[in-house]
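Example (one chain per record):
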Amino acid sequence: MLLPHTASCPALRAENAMLRDIITQAGIALEQDFAQMKLMELENERLRKRAFEKTGRKKQNMPTTGRARHMTAAENLDWLAHHDWENLMKDVFKEAAPRFKVLKKNITDYQKAIEKERKAAEREAKAAAAAEARAVRAQG
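Predicted structure:
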């Protein structure tokens, strides 16, 4: 398939076009094989979990339909991302729970102090208003 070094320019272009076509076909075949492999890995992982996971665990509510669907559909990817996020956030909340309790107590104490100051200021304002009213009655 090698052209001699004295090949004409059109012959070189034809061979180049043929090689590009072969490369394109090989790329498509590689993409198909890779996608098929990933789908098989997902299916094997699902079957492995189903076979070896302890029974009695609560079932995940993955959105399903009665029809065939592509596993990388946008809604499935969103659901999986949200599910992963929820699991990670559970771990974060579990680790941060003691700190959250301290912060909640500090905030509650601060709000109580503000409320106490507000009530004291209201009492002082009422007392000042009452004293002023008495002073006006005493003068008048």
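Caption: The chain has two helices and no strands.
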